[in-house]
Amino acid sequence: MKAQRAAVTRPPRVRARTTSIAAFVVLAALIPTTASASGTQEIEVELPYVCTLPSGQLPTTVRISAEFPERADAGETFSPSGVTTTVELPAEAVADLTGRGAAQVRAATRLEVGVAQNEATAKATWRGGAEPVALPESGPLTLVSKGDVPSVAGRGDGDLTFTAGTLAIDLALDAAAGAASADPASTDPAASRPAATGPDSGSGSDSLTVGCALDEDAPGQGLLATVRVGADGSASPSGSPSGPGGASRTPDREAQGHGQEERQGDRSPEVLETPPGAAPDRDDVPPCRYDEQHPPTDVSLNAYVTGYANVNKMKGAAYLPPSCLLIEQGIPVDGPPDPEHIIFDTVSWANFHYQGRKETPPFPSTFLSFDFAPVKATMVLKQTGPIRIDSRIKLRLSDFTTVTDTYVRAPLVAHVTDLEVNGTPLDVGPDCRTETSLTSADPDPANHPGNHLVLYGRGEQLIGQEATGYLLLSGGTLSGETSIPAFTGCGTADGEDLDRLLTASVSGPGNHIKQVQGQTCAIAAPVFPTPETPGQCTQDLQPYEIPVAER
Are the C-beta atoms of 90 and 52 separated by less than 8 Å? Predict the structure, then answer.
């Protein structure tokens, strides 16, 4: 394991006109710049795994990188950030996939992570998704997966350790990268079905789930990171010193009897699928209701969405405040035949709704540029077409487990509306915007051409248990990666042209987006809060839940 702290680069002193400085500063205002804090540890661990494929068990290299805090207070919740899982499958694995007729693959990973503090343990699942990758003609196949991880809190003082465990790789195998699976003009529902990122792939593709186990000779037995918790990270709640992996060095564990085992649940590290946070007051979010200009139907839903969007060039993230989404839920249709599953496909449509317009509320970003100049920029995301939501539900007949893969395709142009530098407004003009929509690599470009943002979410539900992950009705986390196009229309005729500066400093690929959708309110059958039932709708038919953004 190696930890390297990112270097903080200070900008050189610049002698220029105030307007030129302000023009440069606006670029950073879009996304507040950040640097690695002194209390952050960056880890990159390379681990040997053994993965089971049709040809047998094959050695596989897995690299895991993330950022953890160096320490936390007892009970303080934190979430590892920037989690990336890179899997390098050997050439033999590539032969297995090509033997199944695949030309490209799209992967979703599920890494089991053990969390331990003293003698108490818990488990978390780190999920990630990878962009489509063409199978190489020779050599290994590298899959780079990024995604969301649960938050964790230590119950008391003592080192909190994170250890890699089993890894599952869900592979969607496409026979021909980018090949059309149906006539786009066809009225057959199969023509509009998306490809999937997991084992639940759509028409024209196969699937395979690869199970991987940590090699018994893995360095540190898979240790990823250690976070000190409390005033003294080496002290356990009982005062016993901690050993490797957070296990307390107690001379005679059996002599302590079953009482200690019964208390372990109370002391186990707390793993939270959704990091806690303070939801905004309802007075601070825009209304989200249907009206005379936008009357509801029998399948109308509404929900709030919020989140963060990264900009690689600025090494920071912009906060999207809760925004209203009006949704028309589609009617399920039969999916492709499958002897082991019942499959349904649904296409729903949605629009942002702010003051009657299909856009988000304005969202400002404020920071100090050059460590002294306060800058405030305001942005709006505007739709250039309807938002399409494709969901595929697979019900496994053997145990009635359901898995739902959802793709959200949103054509959104970013507009810069206002800018202040040191309290002085800078005129960016009335139409400062990206030239096209934010753009993602679409898993099914033949049936979904054009520029649009793509977000993906997966929901899973075991019989008799609550669903986890993302479902359209109950909400959850969606994530994706986007390219920010070049800017145009920024500046005024008698002022400075800011297009090139904005493009050079902000535009580019590889910008991660993490969006959280709240529970929907079904207008035709509203569920109001009771002492026994959580609410889904307010009395005036707005979404009851206001979600909290997650980094």
Answer: no
